[in-house]
Design a protein that fits this description.
The complex is a heterodimer of chains A (297) and B (285).
Chain A (H helix, E strand, L loop, with lengths): L4 H29 L2 E2 L11 E2 L3 H6 L3 H31 L7 H9 L6 H12 L6 H9 L2 H4 L9 H26 L3 H9 L4 H12 L1 H16 L3 H6 L7 H10 L10 H26 L7
Chain B lengths: L2 H40 L3 H6 L10 H9 L2 H32 L5 H13 L3 H13 L7 H10 L1 H13 L4 H8 L4 H12 L1 H17 L2 H6 L8 H15 L2 H33 L4
Helix pairs in contact in B: 1-14, 3-14, 4-7, 4-8, 4-11, 4-13, 5-8, 8-11, 9-10, 11-14, 13-14
Classes of the chains: A mainly alpha (297), B mainly alpha (285).
Chain lengths: 297, 285
């Protein structure tokens, strides 16, 4: 078939234009902004003054930003282990041919189609409520008085509570990824292992795990790019202990609660750059770590 | 294997499955109980919520009247539709031709384009919004629905193109050859022959895009945080924040229900399509 330059331009033109406008240009301009000082986000470039690394310096001396980076690190690590761990476990269970397997899979995935704000409020207003909440009621019913007294939404426990909600709403997505990978593995491997007398744990350890290693690595990278944009839940749970870099950047740009003197687009841009670099470095590190030979499935 | 051993091994198998059943049932049971309770609470009074007798005095539809009318839930819902539907259509109009071209045409820069798509998948929204905000306020577009439609379309280009590429790659070249012999140009050939052939994939990605745009929060908060522009998610944040002071819990639950019911209903009917959107693309949510 004839592939004229003209038809290529027609097919690719709109997509390329949007890409340049919404990805290429903004990334370049945000990176530039991080080295300049300006009054507002919309200040034209000629009103910018060069600041060198001043924005970054200021950023790393801002307590709230440091707290938020520490928080996102904890969210990435702890809820990452919990989410991917539960996802793997549920994927393993739901590939064994249980009754109502399809229904169970679809139900575990369900929270992923609900908006993060709504998920946040379902937990904040209902599950964690200490008067009529699900957990308090449940623990009272079981007679675990101490657990029933637990204040899920007090200052110190807010972070834990938010992480539980985050794990719950993300697990289904990764579970589906793992299920797809596990179902790609040929039955023959399991059959012959079964004949050799391998039990379910050995089969998981020596067949499933090595064969889905690539997908596990990919999911860890995906987890990183997802968590860096952690925002809606942090805003809903709204507490210093649940502050994330995304929320910090948003507040530094628009100052909804703090006074207007805290608005600083240069620092916000620096924060965006730091977040992006962190995500890229961590993802590359993970890719490097997990890069191993691929097995033929 | 003797019969006895078979029974024992079958029993052992079920015993091993028991903890599995238990975990799954607790997890799923929790999910449905939570959703169900919130729906019941949204039809009760705040008093009933606190005393634990949901629906004791019958269905209170007034919570919804308040959520839809007084709290502008209806308008927010309309706004969400205005943002989501055109974006989904535009995404296909832009991405399907691009995916087709990249996956089937050999030309210089093709490899680079594929790399750029992957990079685009990894760029966080926070890097994008500041320059976009300044462009949009310079063009005086900050009061219009167009802004979010444009942003939703444009930011979906990498994933949707990436998702559609393998489907176009899988179509036999004989279709194009036959079309070319019959004198059909490449653009017509694409829309009349290739596009219908990958229709299932188009449907999948569109449902997937619909849900992700419907649930999008950050850009909506930045670009549509005015009462006449707010989509449903941003509206919910505003409503709950203001209701928290008045203590209208029933009203808050009604507002939460309005946000999640549309996507959950769509999911109930199209879960297979949505799940295959996750596993086939398998890269980004």
């Amino acid at each position: 078939m004839k592939q004229t330059k003209r038809s290529i331009a027609i097919f690719l033109g709109p997509a390329a234009l949007l890409y340049v406008l919404v990805f290429f240009y903004p990334v370049v301009r945000t990176t530039m902004m991080s080295f300049f000082e300006m009054r507002g986000i919309s200040s034209p470039m000629k009103e910018w003054t060069f600041a060198g690394l001043k924005n970054f310096n200021k950023l790393f001396h801002t307590q709230l930003f440091l707290i938020s980076m520490k928080n996102i690190g904890k969210i990435w690590l702890y809820t990452g282990i919990a989410t991917l761990g539960f996802a793997l476990l549920l994927a393993l269970i739901l590939t064994q041919g249980l009754k109502f397997q399809k229904f169970f899979r679809a139900s575990v995935y369900l929270p992923n189609v609900i908006a993060a704000v709504a998920i946040g409020y379902m937990w904040l207003l209902y599950v964690f409520n200490n008067k009529f909440g699900l957990l308090t009621t449940l623990f009272k019913l079981l007679g675990w008085e101490k657990m029933a007294q637990f204040q899920w939404l007090s200052g110190n426990n807010m972070f834990l509570s938010m992480c539980i909600a985050y794990v719950f709403s993300n697990t289904g997505y990764f579970m589906m990824m793992y299920i797809a990978a596990m179902e790609n593995i040929s039955r023959d491997y399991y059959d012959s292992a079964h004949i050799e007398g391998a039990n379910v744990f050995q089969r998981f350890l020596y067949i499933t795990l090595p064969l889905i290693k690539g997908v596990l690595g990919m999911s860890a990278v995906l987890w990183t790019t997802r968590t860096i944009g952690f925002f809606a839940l942090a805003q809903v749970f709204s507490n210093t202990s649940t502050f994330t870099p995304m929320l910090y950047t948003y507040r530094t740009l628009f100052a909804t609660e703090a006074g207007s003197e805290s608005v600083n687009p240069g620092v916000a841009a620096a924060s965006a750059v730091v977040m992006t670099l962190t995500a890229v470095i961590v993802s590359q590190g993970l890719k490097h770590l997990i890069k191993t030979e691929n097995y033929e499935i | 294997m003797s019969r006895k051993r078979k029974i024992i091994s079958g029993l052992k198998k079920e015993m091993l499955r028991l903890p599995g059943y238990l975990l799954v049932i607790v997890w799923v049971g929790f999910t449905f109980f939570m959703i169900g309770w919130i729906i019941l609470a949204s039809f009760s009074t705040t008093r009933e919520i606190f005393t634990g007798d949901l629906l004791a005095s019958g269905l209170h539809v007034s919570n919804y009247v308040k959520a839809f009318i007084t709290n502008k839930g209806l308008r927010n819902l309309m706004n969400s539709v205005i943002y989501t539907v055109p974006s989904c259509v535009l995404i296909i109009l832009v991405c399907a031709p691009a995916a087709y071209c990249i996956s089937r045409f050999a030309f210089r820069g093709n490899g680079l384009l594929q790399k750029l798509i992957l990079i685009g998948l990894a760029i966080p929204g926070i890097m994008i919004i500041m320059p976009m905000f300044s462009i949009i306020s310079t063009l005086n577009l900050s009061g219009s629905h167009f802004t979010l439609i444009f942003l939703y379309t444009a930011t979906s280009v990498p994933y949707s193109t990436f998702f559609l590429m393998p489907f176009f790659a899988g179509v036999s070249t004989t279709y194009e050859d036959a079309a070319a012999i019959d004198g059909c140009g490449p653009v017509r050939c694409f829309w009349h022959i290739m596009f219908p052939l990958v229709q299932p994939a188009i449907v999948t990605i569109t449902i997937f895009n619909f849900i992700s745009k419907w649930n999008e929060y950050f850009m909506a908060l930045v670009f549509a945080n005015k009462s006449e522009l707010r989509p449903i998610g941003v509206g919910l944040y505003q409503i709950v924040t203001s209701m928290m002071n008045s203590g209208d819990w029933a009203g808050m639950f009604a507002s939460v229900v309005i946000v999640f019911v549309p996507t959950v209903v769509i999911y109930a009917f199209l879960s297979d399509k949505i799940i295959s959107g996750v596993t086939a693309g398998g890269v980004k949510g």
